């Protein structure tokens, strides 16, 4: 039987961690959408050096551990005089890491729209930007939403690395409560439940969207 | 920044020793996860009353939890209920729990990708359900599973670095130990460690891409 008094006594602490986990995830999502879109466009744009920059970013970041990137912001940059608090360092690390995955999702979405669509739009008299905005992007967005949802789920889970650098998230406060109460098992079960509270509804939503998209094809 | 000091032979050797532990943990974990993942994937695919739904809930729960939490759990929480593991095995257990859930989904979608007509044809040729699964469905599905499994292995190699929280002597942990000696080593060491991960993972991703083009 779980000891619910731990949850009740430390409710405020759990809530603070939960709020910070959510905050880090949302901030990192916004940041990585911005960087990811730029990198995706770099990879597709008909300019060679931009292709290289986009490809280098995506391939390098995707193949190294998240925690290494977080450490670069938390330990590496301070070594040359650039300092962040732990929450900011963690969120920046998450943003840089997730952006590489989001760039791939966006690129795949744009490439999934048949080439004929652009040609047809252009020959109907639309400019390149109009065609992109009114014809290609709306279709790409529909394709991109489910994998983007999956990236957000990963982001929420990955935000737990903030706990490693005392980033004031759910993981960190779980650690704090367990060192205060000398209880670990129950404390972490409650931490797990708070994560599931975020990730399970997201997973169900993504699943439903995927099925709807599969049907409409 | 002190590149010369950071890349002293003793440090390079220490990092390599860490990388060996990283690879060891990753290989052992993927091996056991693959076996468990196949069993869970096949059981879920076979739609066995009661068992399949229970497995579905288990897999979905694990997949929706942070791996870091599972590592904390196997190392810090299990001893509380009388199950004490050494760092090395606690890390492997956590990775196996997490990766089995991930791999079971790859196995399940691989099985689902085999056309239903093949199963009907096999069954009407007189094969039993198990024979059909073993001789017809699994061999084809396994081939299609190779690229996503390589992808999962890349994730796993990166994820072993999370075991730095329990001071498992892997690459990240050894990097942190060297960094602790001199602040001027930090950036050169992180750079080298990133390159080590990158070289191995990028090579794997090239292999995976090649396999993808071969089989689809």
Automatic annotation (TrEMBL), chain A:
SUPFAM superfamilies according to UniProt: MetI-like
InterPro entries: AA_ABC_transptr_permease_3TM (IPR010065), ArtM/GltK/GlnP/TcyL/YhdX-like (IPR043429), MetI-like (IPR000515), MetI-like_sf (IPR035906)
Annotated membrane topology: Multi-pass membrane protein
Keyword set, alphabetical order: Amino-acid transport, Cell membrane, Membrane, Transmembrane, Transmembrane helix, Transport
Domain ABC transmembrane type-1 per the UniProt entry, residue ranges: 18-206
Localization annotation: Cell membrane
Chain segments annotated as transmembrane: 24-42, 63-82, 94-113, 125-145, 187-209
Family annotation (CDD domains): TM_PBP2
GO biological process entries: amino acid transport
Pfam families referenced in this protein's UniProt entry, alphabetically: BPD_transp_1 (PF00528)
Single GO MF annotation: transmembrane transporter activity
A single GO cellular-component term on record: ATP-binding cassette (ABC) transporter complex
Homology family: Belongs to the binding-protein-dependent transport system permease family.
Protein name: Putative glutamine transport system permease protein
Organism (species): Anoxybacillus mongoliensis
UniProtKB/TrEMBL annotation, chain B:
Domain of life: Bacteria
Assigned keywords, A-Z: Amino-acid transport, Cell membrane, Membrane, Transmembrane, Transmembrane helix, Transport
Species this chain originates from: Anoxybacillus mongoliensis
GO BP: any one term: amino acid transport
Family: Belongs to the binding-protein-dependent transport system permease family.
Main location: membrane
SUPFAM superfamilies in alphabetical order: MetI-like
GO cellular component: ATP-binding cassette (ABC) transporter complex
Phylogenetic lineage: Bacteria, Bacillati, Bacillota, Bacilli, Bacillales
Membrane-spanning segments: 20-43, 50-76, 88-107, 183-204
Limits of the ABC transmembrane type-1 domain: 19-208
InterPro entries: AA_ABC_transptr_permease_3TM (IPR010065), ArtM/GltK/GlnP/TcyL/YhdX-like (IPR043429), MetI-like (IPR000515), MetI-like_sf (IPR035906)
Entry membrane topology: Multi-pass membrane protein
Gene Ontology terms, MF aspect: transmembrane transporter activity
Subcellular compartments: Cell membrane
Record bears the keyword Flavoprotein: no
CDD domains for this protein: TM_PBP2
UniProt protein name: Putative glutamine transport system permease protein
């Amino acid at each position: 039987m779980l000891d619910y008094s731990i949850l009740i006594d430390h409710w405020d602490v759990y809530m603070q961690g939960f709020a910070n986990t959510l905050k880090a995830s949302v901030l990192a999502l916004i940041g990585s959408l911005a960087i990811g879109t730029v990198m995706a466009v770099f990879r597709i744009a008909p300019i060679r050096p931009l292709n290289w920059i986009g490809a280098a970013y995506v391939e390098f970041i995707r193949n190294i551990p998240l925690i290494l990137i977080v450490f670069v912001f938390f330990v590496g940059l301070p070594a040359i005089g650039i300092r962040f608090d732990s929450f900011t360092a963690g969120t920046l690390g998450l943003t840089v890491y997730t952006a590489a995955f989001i760039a791939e999702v966006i690129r795949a979405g744009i490439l999934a729209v048949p080439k004929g669509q652009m040609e047809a739009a252009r020959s109907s008299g639309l400019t390149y930007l109009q065609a992109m905005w009114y014809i290609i992007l709306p279709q790409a967005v529909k394709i991109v939403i489910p994998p983007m949802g999956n990236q957000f789920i990963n982001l929420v889970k990955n935000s737990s690395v903030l706990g490693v650098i005392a980033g004031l998230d759910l993981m960190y406060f779980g650690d704090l409560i367990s060192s205060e109460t000398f209880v670990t098992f129950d404390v972490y079960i409650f931490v797990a439940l708070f994560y599931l509270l975020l990730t399970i509804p997201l997973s169900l939503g993504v699943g439903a969207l995927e099925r709807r998209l599969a049907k409409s094809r | 920044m002190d590149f010369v000091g950071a890349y002293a032979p003793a440090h390079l050797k220490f990092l390599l020793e860490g990388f060996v532990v990283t690879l060891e943990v990753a290989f052992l974990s993927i091996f056991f996860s693959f076996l468990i993942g196949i069993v869970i994937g096949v059981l879920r695919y076979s739609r066995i009353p009661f068992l399949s739904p229970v497995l579905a809930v288990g897999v979905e729960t694990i997949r929706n939890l942070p791996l870091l939490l599972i590592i904390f759990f196997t190392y810090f929480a299990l001893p509380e209920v009388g199950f004490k593991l050494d760092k090395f095995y606690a890390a492997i257990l956590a990775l196996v729990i997490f990766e089995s859930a991930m791999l079971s989904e790859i196995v399940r979608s691989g099985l689902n990708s085999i056309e239903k007509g093949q199963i009907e044809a096999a069954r009407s040729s007189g094969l039993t359900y198990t024979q059909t699964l073993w001789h017809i469905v699994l061999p084809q599905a396994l081939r299609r599973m190779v690229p996503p499994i390589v992808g999962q292995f890349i994730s796993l190699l990166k994820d072993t670095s999370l075991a730095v929280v329990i001071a498992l002597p892997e690459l990240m942990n050894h990097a942190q130990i060297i960094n602790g000696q001199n602040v001027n080593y930090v950036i050169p060491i992180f750079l080298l460690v990133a390159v080590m991960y990158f070289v191995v993972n990028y090579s794997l991703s090239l292999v995976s891409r090649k396999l993808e083009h071969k089989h689809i």
